[in-house]
């Protein structure tokens, strides 16, 4: 994840200790718990192919045990996601277990089930709620496959804000909505929302590559997002494409930015972050379908790393773009997207738009400084 506003304005942010610690912990600091595959919507770009067909959920006790293991591992941050995590009635108990152990809890939701009653249960234990939006009402509802989804999500985020929970937006950039960045910032102004994260499409589940923008469009969209970040009014992040950080460096030429990017180290799937699927399979992230182990042995996955985890830790020896001069600040981008696009886990990430960043004119000494 790249904090565009942090890099541009140098204003410290809450997640700095995770994003720029530069530490090489043996365990991930962030775990995504996909606690269910059930969802009341059927989004076109859902990476977990979730929907209304009554999927089996793992029992609460399994997730509570996973939180305990996460705590033993020193995990700092658990992201509750799905499916729609609020489809689980016992979600607040998972959040409470994490909160009681000093783990920061975030909720990633479509927002339609954010009622006062659910927030009453959750608000003490959840540090942040990210509500997904895809654009104006018609565009959003078409994406979500349900008429009325937009108005319910807006209602949910308003209640969440009213009840004092830090609430922001999540927006996945696709061919169908990339020109709604202005709309999103206007909406944030109107609703008094100060945080947004833009996601590059990862080709997993129903998120087909055909939905993605081309890299020329991607560059223009990210430049626009950077422009919006300049006045420091919002906390703006992008996720799943470390090249955005290189773009910021190329525009600022700031040694401070380069230093932060170095400490961030680019994509760290399987190292700084990992994902647990609704069925309890542990993956390097939400988008890379290479199993690392099972939820019941969460900690052991890093205590006794298997061949795939070892390869991810040593990915510079395998990723095909490893001779790139920005490898240390990118780490080769998202492996799951390379795998989905080419069938080869170690191929170049197709969303890398480094070739289009024409203002970079760095010498080796810049990179070594
Ligand atoms: S070529 Fe590879 S390492 Fe370099 S910026 Fe692109 S994805 Fe990152």
TrEMBL record:
<keyword id="KW-0004">4Fe-4S</keyword>
<dbReference type="Pfam" id="PF04055">
    <property type="entry name" value="Radical_SAM"/>
</dbReference>
<dbReference type="InterPro" id="IPR007197">
    <property type="entry name" value="rSAM"/>
</dbReference>
<dbReference type="InterPro" id="IPR058240">
    <property type="entry name" value="rSAM_sf"/>
</dbReference>
<protein>
    <submittedName>
        <fullName>Radical SAM domain-containing protein</fullName>
    </submittedName>
</protein>
<dbReference type="InterPro" id="IPR050377">
    <property type="entry name" value="Radical_SAM_PqqE_MftC-like"/>
</dbReference>
<dbReference type="InterPro" id="IPR017200">
    <property type="entry name" value="PqqE-like"/>
</dbReference>
<keyword id="KW-0479">Metal-binding</keyword>
<keyword id="KW-0408">Iron</keyword>
<dbReference type="GO" id="GO:0006783">
    <property type="term" value="P:heme biosynthetic process"/>
</dbReference>
<feature type="domain" description="Radical SAM core">
    <location>
        <begin position="25"/>
        <end position="233"/>
    </location>
</feature>
<dbReference type="GO" id="GO:0051539">
    <property type="term" value="F:4 iron, 4 sulfur cluster binding"/>
</dbReference>
<dbReference type="InterPro" id="IPR013785">
    <property type="entry name" value="Aldolase_TIM"/>
</dbReference>
<dbReference type="InterPro" id="IPR006638">
    <property type="entry name" value="Elp3/MiaA/NifB-like_rSAM"/>
</dbReference>
<keyword id="KW-0949">S-adenosyl-L-methionine</keyword>
<dbReference type="GO" id="GO:0046872">
    <property type="term" value="F:metal ion binding"/>
</dbReference>
<keyword id="KW-0411">Iron-sulfur</keyword>
<dbReference type="GO" id="GO:0003824">
    <property type="term" value="F:catalytic activity"/>
</dbReference>
């Amino acid at each position: 994840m790249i904090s565009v506003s942090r890099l541009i304005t140098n204003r410290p942010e809450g997640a700095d200790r995770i994003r720029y610690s530069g530490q090489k912990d043996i365990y991930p600091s962030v775990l995504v718990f996909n606690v269910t595959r059930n969802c009341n919507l059927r989004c076109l770009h859902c990476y977990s192919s979730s929907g209304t067909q009554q999927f089996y959920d793992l029992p609460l006790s399994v997730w509570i045990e996973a939180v305990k293991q996460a705590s033993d591992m020193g995990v700092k941050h658990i992201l509750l996601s799905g499916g729609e995590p609020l489809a689980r009635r016992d979600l607040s108990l998972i959040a409470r277990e994490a909160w009681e152990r000093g783990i920061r809890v975030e909720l990633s939701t479509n927002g339609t089930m954010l009622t006062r009653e659910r927030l009453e249960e959750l608000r003490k234990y959840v540090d942040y709620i990210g509500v997904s939006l895809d654009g104006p009402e018609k565009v959003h509802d078409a994406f979500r496959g349900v008429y009325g989804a937009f108005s319910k999500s807006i209602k949910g985020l308003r209640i969440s804000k009213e009840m004092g929970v830090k609430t922001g937006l999540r927006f996945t950039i696709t061919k169908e909505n990339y020109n709604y960045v202005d709309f999103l910032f206007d909406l944030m102004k109107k609703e008094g929302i100060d945080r947004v994260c833009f996601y590059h499409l990862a080709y997993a589940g129903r998120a087909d590559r055909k939905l993605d923008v081309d890299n020329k469009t991607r560059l223009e969209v990210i430049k626009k997002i950077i422009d919006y970040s300049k006045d420091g009014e919002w906390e703006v992040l992008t996720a799943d494409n470390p090249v955005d950080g290189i773009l910021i460096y190329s525009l600022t030429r700031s040694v401070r930015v380069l230093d932060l990017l170095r400490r961030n180290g680019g994509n760290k799937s399987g190292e700084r972050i990992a994902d647990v699927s609704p069925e309890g399979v542990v993956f390097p992230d939400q988008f890379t379908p290479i199993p690392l182990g099972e939820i019941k042995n969460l900690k052991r996955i890093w205590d006794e790393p298997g061949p795939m985890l070892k390869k991810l830790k040593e990915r510079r020896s395998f990723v095909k773009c490893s001779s790139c001069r920005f490898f240390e600040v990118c780490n080769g981008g998202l492996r799951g997207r390379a795998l989905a696009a080419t069938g080869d886990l170690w191929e170049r990430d197709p969303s890398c738009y480094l070739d289009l960043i024409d203002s970079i004119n760095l010498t080796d000494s810049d990179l070594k400084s």
